[in-house]
Amino acid sequence: MEFSSKLLENAVYEVSQLPGIGKRTALRLVLHLLKQPEQQTYHLANALVKLKDEINFCKNCHNISDTETCEICANPKRDSSIICVVEDVRDVMAIENTSQFQGHYHVLGGKISPMEGVGPQDLTIPALVTKVKGGGVKELIFALSASMEGDTTNFYIYKQLEGLQVATSTIARGIAVGDELEYADEVTLGRSILHRVPFESSLKSN
Amino acid sequence: MEFSSKLLENAVYEVSQLPGIGKRTALRLVLHLLKQPEQQTYHLANALVKLKDEINFCKNCHNISDTETCEICANPKRDSSIICVVEDVRDVMAIENTSQFQGHYHVLGGKISPMEGVGPQDLTIPALVTKVKGGGVKELIFALSASMEGDTTNFYIYKQLEGLQVATSTIARGIAVGDELEYADEVTLGRSILHRVPFESSLKSN
């Protein structure tokens, strides 16, 4: 692409560095901003810089939070002895939306991925291990994505906790509610048969 | 969506104001920026604000340009008596890529659209009419999109130029090179038959 302006080219380049946004989409977004009142561009730029500069993570669960301790960790009604291990803030939001979990979270900030150069020390795994060793934690629920990296991360944490008095579980994998069996992939269907649930307990969850 | 941080919520809100970007995508983009070195966020914010603050339009064709007169208008080899009327800088870039046009452009900055409250005065139509009235323009080529708004804009400019010695044309609509007839829509196929080209002249353009 040949641009008629270096300023335009630079803005398009920076926007196209975002994931899933190519040069064409970036140009469309930049031209849209140019047509809008200048306040919109200032607000966008400010919001991004302010977030980056003033971002704070809960000292307990490492979720993004404006306060030293996030609302979930600060809530006395929630059970701090059950900790759900998730990858990032999106997973916390998704699980909170279900209203089915009343424990605490631990946000890892990613998954172990040798391909992308992410090791255990780049995540908040040491803090999690320290927390469990400190006592008071009865169960860890692994809620990472069912991928090679997710499984590796689960297993790494599991090994770190060997010998400690803490139960570990992973969220159930199976056919989504409302899905047809014939369209399910083999691995998921296989797991849903392997980890079948007593009929009585499936009645309770409805 | 319930966010654990006002800063995060604000950044997601501002990003989701961009066209075609919903809240989920905005959150993904913002979390991506958070994982990157802070320089990337600063560069992005700077590039957008700088473009908005220092944006300059060519005084002749109204295309985005870093100089008072853009490279195309300043090029003495280009024919200033033929003006191609386009909507925005993307159309200029697309036509320049074909290397088939050696005239000047006139960038309208949009199309007349009563639905979106865009009238002739919001575009650079008055400047175009003044330019043609000033003399020296032999032909205007309308290259707006073939939509209700594009046709309205073409017709409005055409009426404004009544009585002036200037030829007007629109770019050819027809079956794209390489396309199969059976998949073409009726309007396009109809136009391609109505505006058929003498076979000898089609040979020259190959």
UniProtKB/TrEMBL annotation, chains A, B:
SUPFAM superfamilies: Recombination protein RecR (SSF111304). Belongs to the RecR family. A zinc finger (C4-type) spans 58-73. May play a role in DNA repair. It seems to be involved in an RecBC-independent recombinational process of DNA repair. It may act with RecF and RecO. Residues 81-176 form the Toprim domain. HAMAP family: RecR. CDD domains: TOPRIM_recR. It comes from the Bacteria. InterPro entries: DNA_Rcmb_RecR, Rcmb_RecR, Rcmb_RecR_Znf, TOPRIM_dom, TOPRIM_RecR. The lineage of its organism: Bacteria, Pseudomonadati, Bacteroidota, Flavobacteriia, Flavobacteriales. One of its GO terms (biological process) is DNA repair. It holds the Pfam family RecR_ZnF. This is Recombination protein RecR. Keywords: DNA damage, DNA recombination, DNA repair, Metal-binding, Zinc, Zinc-finger. GO terms for molecular function: DNA binding; zinc ion binding. PANTHER family: RECOMBINATION PROTEIN RECR.
